Amino acid sequence: QVQLVESGGGLVQRGGSLRLSCAASGITLDYYAIGWFRQAPGKEREGVSCISSNTGRTYYVDSVKGRFTISRDSAKNTVYLEMNSLKPEDTAVYYCATGDSACFVTSWGVIRGGPYNYWGQGTQVTVSS
Q1: Distance (Å, rounded) from C-alpha 49 to C-alpha 112?
Q2: Does residue 97 contact residue 114 with C-beta atoms inside 8 Å?
Q3: Closest by alpha carbon to 114, among 47, 41, 24?
Q4: pLDDT in tens, 12-49
Q5: How far is CA 52 from CA 15, 35, 96, in A?
């Protein structure tokens, strides 16, 4: 049974940092792309970042470029999202997802989560002003 478990969320002040973890069981993450997505109250889910399986290429939504970094630890079967210079608009529930070896990114930079069939339960990130 495939399971993704996010952790690392919390309450942080503007400008602070958090590191989210996505630990997997039942699959070997090296063979899969992992996407991070977020959903704020009243808003649609948004793709934040993705790391592909074969090339390790990374993708970021424009609003987090230069502030967030996605990485993979094969030994721990875990993917991380390092978030720096956090802003109140980053407040959301953050989810990791997988189910394919590729990241699905549109030509205008939207990271899509529809093709993924494995999702974690989410971790809350709240950034106060």
Answers
A1: 10
A2: no
A3: 47
A4: 999 999 999 999 999 999 999 999 999 999 999 999 99
A5: 28, 9, 13
pLDDT tens digits, one per residue of 65-101: 999 999 999 999 999 999 999 999 999 999 999 999 9
Q: In whole angstroms, give the CA distance from residue 93 to residue 103.
A: 20
* Cβ contact 123:93 at 8 Å: yes
Q: How far apart are the first and last CA of the chain?
A: 40
CB 50 within 8 A of CB 59: yes
Q: Is 89 left (phi over 0), alpha (psi -120 to 50) or beta?
A: alpha
Residue type, 9: G
